[in-house]
Structures are given as C-alpha cells and as structure tokens.
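Appendix B, Record 12. Input sequence as logged:
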Amino acid sequence: DWIAGLGAFDFLDINAGCPMPKIRNRGDGAGLMRDPAKMAEIVRQVAAAVAGRLPVTLKTRIGWCADTVNVMETTAGAEAAGAAAIFLHGRVASVRHSGPSDWAMIAEVKRARRVPVVGNGGVKAPADVFRMAAETGADGVMVGRAPLGNPWWFRDVRDLAAGREPRLPTVEEVRAVIHEHLRREMELMGRRERKELKHGADVTACLVLRPHLVRYLRGFRGFGELVRTLEERQDAATLLRRVDRVLASGRKSVADGRN
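Logged structural output:
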C-alpha cells in the first residue's frame, strides 16, 4: 500500500543523520554510521522496493564522532547501493548541532561522489547559503533550524540572489503569519480524538504555538511581558489579543527584528 502512494512524493529520503540519543543509540538515524554495510543494505533494499518509481536519497553526517569520520566510506557504499543523492551534514553525530560544521569535508565528498551532494549544517544567515555553495561546490544547500520563527528567511535568500537588500517583515506580515499558524494548529488539534487532548483543541493549539511565538516576536518591545504569560492556559482569542498588544508596541530596533 505504501508503494502505491509514492506518486505523491518527489523522492524518498533515508535519515541516517538524526543525532538524538534515543534514536542513534538503538542503531537508527546517525547510529547507522557505525555500521556502513547495514546503511548501504538499507539503501539497496529500499531502492529495490520502489523499483524506480522515485529516487531514493540518503541524509547522513560526516561520522559518528571525531575519531570515526567515515563519511567517504558510508557515502561510497550508499552511492553503490543506488542512492540518487546525498544530503550531508558537516558535523559528527556525537556533537549533535554544536560547534562548527566541516564544510571542507562536504567539499571533499562532493568531489568524490558522482551523485549530487547537498550540503547541510552551519547555515544560519541567508548569506550563508551562498557561502556554503561557493566553499563546498555542493549541488544544493539544505537548511534546518535557521528559519524557525522566521519564514521570511527564504525571501531574504531570494532577495540576495537577485541583488536586492533583504527587508524586515512588516508588523502586518508578522501578525498574518501568527494568525495563520494558530488557525492551522487549531484545525490539526480539532482532528484529534478528544481523549488525546488534555485541555481541548483551542487551548492545546495555543500551548503548541508558544515556542514559535517566542521566535516570531523576539525584538518587539512587549515581548518580555508576553513570555511571562505563556505558561498560562489561554484560549485563542486571549492569546491573539496579547499578541496584538506586543505588535502594537513596535520593535526595539531594526537589528532586533532579525532572528
């Protein structure tokens, strides 16, 4: 049945890069880097199962720890097993997301592999997209956490590519995104069984939105006051009134508007 539904997707990516301990310690995610033969066999079997219906790709890291940087071996095995592309994070699994990302290693893998190699890790500002591309020669750049709370990040990348100066989102743009985000969270919670929700769909959606609000509203003058209220259980109408008060307070400075 799952193969029949593959037409809805552009490619199928095998995640051999997740560094979370509960995943990697059981041999999944980045834990697969400790067993290159198993990683390659997974790629081979998945590629055989989809039988050319769509590309099978691999997301991985440069190694398990600093003493086992085995990315040349793992990516060679994945390529030979049928991986159509490699998405490569430039850190080892043991450091998760701390420290610098080894873009030089990404460049080395790019030179060695025939399939496309997409770089990942250490891309924080929109300008980093172009810096990684230039330094690694990668076929693409993959971004993870940087745009959280700042969906305009991608607009900034497009502006830089077109030679335009990126601009801050307007207050109305921020308000519209928050309202839309909350509306969709409420729709999602509304589809769940009532017994799964401790506080009801409305309040639960507000609770889920909290960490995103912190990012959306960082740099506004009323931000601190709102943060102090986020531990309270509140319905959507109450939360949006508080958000509107923060937005009305304006930004502290232009620099504070950048996440």
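Residues 183 and 205 are 8 Å apart (CA to CA).
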